[in-house]
Amino acid sequence: MDNREFIRRKSGGPVRRPSRRNGPPRILWVLLALAVIAAIFILIFFFRKNPGNGEEEGTGSVPEPTPLVSDSSNLASEPSSALATPEPPSAAMPDQSYPDSAPTDMGSFMIAEGKGYDYYKFSEENTNNFILAVDNAAKSLPSSVNFYSVIIPTSMDVTLQESYLVDNQVDSSDQRKAIDSYIYPSISAMAPSVKTVPTFNPLREHCNEYIYFNSDRTWTQLGAYYVYRSFCSVKSIEPVSLDSLTKKEYEGFSGGFYGESSSDSLYTDTVEAYFPGGNTSLSFTDSEGSQYENWAVIADGDGYDASLLYLIFAAGDQPYKLLENSDITDSSACVVVQDSYGNYFIPFLTQHYQKVYVVDYRSYSYSVPELVSESGATDIILITNVLATSSSSTSESLNSIF
Asked: What are the residue ranges spanned by the domains of the chain?
């Protein structure tokens, strides 16, 4: 693997050393060297105090993974372990893709061999604000409530070979290192009670399966299932088997990448839905305040226009939703705070909780701690994609509802 650190770029050529013959006396060289060393320390201090290049949604480079902490008493008991660079994927993992042709840049994403890939630009300032928002959210809840953080990588780093990204000078930050070596260790250092759910390797282990859409920036429900399995491992519960769920496929879906580019080079998608077991139902409130009841947790897509098939999963993006499984009668409940990625994930939770309360942090305008208290929820699950962690609007939205 090329040493790109946290941003993919090609290294420059060799540096020519100037000749010292016929130059100034040795003492002047010593003084000059001391001045250069002093200047380097000044620059290091300046850039650590002023991270980023002023771009709102990300700068691209990721600093060394030093956890963000405001109080040394909040440090994890073994910070050196938390800071360790994650192990590289096992050699036994399936090969990632190396497309035959160079990618086509589309602005916020690129297209390679019929598939769209979101760029991720790390912003230290915005990421630190996200970490602080998670810490604030955890502190706003009773200690008896279990808090889970689930950060989803996009398809680029999971499914494409590192060598392809380097060879084509793809300007996108390393998501695995950002999540596993910076964000998660920082959250653990500041808020040790927050349980971070591994996401990158559980997806990387299945990179040759249909875990991300070709024409949309979100994942498929199969991708969501592998992270749901990781959540179950952290929570120490048994995940439901895919074989026990009814699967149905819907052809011809064209997602957000196509809507933004109208590129004929993008492959269309097959939407695969795994219908949850049990007597489940969904109610929700839309952005206009209208309330709907007795919807299917996953709707039958046969009556949907192909471009709207993403709406079959828990009614799509809505400010507030309640998923219920009347076959479970133990009053168990959780609250999910999510973005669009959560819609494919939450149907699996109906197999473990009688009630799953869901709020979209981008549009919900009430208090999550009050919802947790009123619902009697014992678990809260925060689901965000990695791009959102580098956006200033995410921390602002989270701080407004916690």
From this structure: 92-401
